[in-house]
Model the fold of this input.
Amino acid sequence: MVQAIVVNNIYKTFGKVDTSMRKQIFKSNSNGDKPVVIAVDHVSFEVNEGEIFGVLGPNGSGKSTLIRLIATLLLPDKGDIQVFGYDAVQQPVKVQRLINRVSVEANFFKKLSPMENLLYGARLYGMNGKETRIRLEEIFQRLGLKKRLIYKPMDEMSRGMQEKVAIARALLSRPRLLLIDEPTIGLDQRSKRDVQEVIEKLNQEFSTTILLTTNDVVEADNLCDRIAIIDRGKIVALDTPEGLKQIISPNGHEPTLEEVYLELTGKVLMKEEMG
Done:
């Protein structure tokens, strides 16, 4: 089985490191520098080609930092990451050619249409305008964006529709690996389901390997082949959704993924985090 991602003992901190503070998550040093934050704490896992792999955890657990490390946007302090056999630190350009990333802070020219935005992005890839327009219309159709919508200004579109456009932009480069950072955060239930259906379709029709971060246990349960639960920068469990549910005692009923999460981390997922 081909491994799309191999993350080996990754460690990442922010702030000035003092060796006397290694065991502390937050600590200001004597010089008044910003606190040292251990964002990712010796994390290891593998993602198989063609699977949807979820990283589930609350805000501040290290999910987004982890995805930025894999995307070569950050350098780890320790450990190594391989994407389809290429080293993310030593061979970042080769890794970048194989991946794309979708995040909640995706930027667009809001007065332009999705087609205009993506044609502009295509030029950065050196893609031909006419061929790209045909390919984009096909991608938009597969993502459920009607033709009349792809020529509307972005600022007239819902958040859910804009998220679909962000995914379409990511598909322009035909990535083997798609990194999706909290794709449904802040969306209403209908928009959330639309985006989740798009993610499933990408995996099934394009055979795209997907790493998905989320703080929504239902989303992780429904979408992901395997899930890593992360808390305070550490992975506390990793298995299939059904495998994770076997970790705790049934207590008269089949445990839910949320109950497993609570048992492992001792935290309640806040309603605003659940979306």
About this structure: The chain has a mean pLDDT of 84. The chain is about 35% helix and 25% strand. The radius of gyration is 20 Å.
